[in-house]
Specification:
single chain; mainly beta; Alpha-Beta Plaits; two-stranded antiparallel ribbon; 1 helix; 4 strands
């Protein structure tokens, strides 16, 4: 199971450096590639607006 970034994302960039497999892409709202995501939860742990949740 992967994580996804919701519309609450503020594109602050905090999560992108936390991903050990570089599954997060920048944009107006960041996106997690579910094929690369290893379900570690590191991104969700650091998101200041709780915009990352398990799928």
């Amino acid at each position: 199971m992967a994580y996804k970034i919701t519309d609450d994302c503020t594109a602050c960039g905090t999560c992108i450096d936390e991903c050990p497999v570089e599954a997060i892409s920048e944009g107006e709202i960041y996106v997690i590639d579910p094929d690369i995501c290893t379900d570690c939860g590191s991104c969700a742990d650091v998101c200041p607006v709780d915009a990352i949740e398990p799928v």
